[in-house]
Amino acid sequence: MSEQIVYLNGEFLPLSEARIPVLDRGFIFGDGIYEVVPVYAGRPFRFTQHLQRLARSLQAIGIDNPFDESGWRGLVADLISRHPWSDQFVYMQVTRGVAKRDHAFPKGIRPTVFAMSSEFIAPSREQREQGVAAITLPDERWLHCDIKSVSLLGNVLAKQAAVEAGAAECLMFRDGILTEGSSSNIWMARHGKVVGSPVNHLVLEGIRVGLLADLCAASGIDYTLRRIAREEVFAADELMLTSATREVLPITRLDGKPVGDGRPGPVYQRLFNAYQDAKRAA
Ligand code: PDD
Question: Which domains does the chain have, with CATH numbers?
């Protein structure tokens, strides 16, 4: 297709023409928030929940929401319609805006609003059938991981460590307790039950956290959020990750050791099927 069209501060324009001033506080301080929304058959999936999280992130850092819900819906529908792919993912970012460099919030500036949509590439058959490898590291991020902030250095370094180890994700631990992946929520299955970490200031409330609760309820799978100790993670029958872009994926190797029997398990299989059904039904 011809070049991707993006939205920037009220305009739709080709990606290569989109420019922001270097004094944008997103560039200078990482002072902004973002969302990543999957789009299936042209329709944003779980969009209400994504917009609610966007509003919470903005409120948490004191930026006025530049649009109400219908404003965001219109903008994103317009963006999607400018691209040929049936399945896309929309990236939305709001920063505090452009001002002379000073840590404190400047008065009277307008937030920078950016959105782009890319083709949605689902995880490969090989990833689904073999599962992916993960490593573990201490969680060295700040204490507001509930805010979907563009300040992602801790996440970036964790993901890079995974990539350098030939793995697809890094599971992070604080004081021996699982938090989340560098860009995903992490799940374990034990005796056919699904367990995830509680969502609080240490863990982003992934939109798939609520989705998995619904999928488990519909499939008759026991679902609990509770603190998970490192030893439990290594003793799990199955491990999985979820995110907007990777949906649900089995983790079959952790720090070089097989998870369970080293193959994607039955709980993953059921959740994968339920996920596909939910996409079709949405
Ligand atoms: N990240 N935790 C972290 C730290 C994440 O970055 C993400 C997703 C999730 C899962 O959230 P959700 O189910 O809403 O995608 C959990 C996105 C995909 C990203 O940064 O690209």
Answer: 5-119 (3.30.470.10), 125-281 (3.20.10.10)
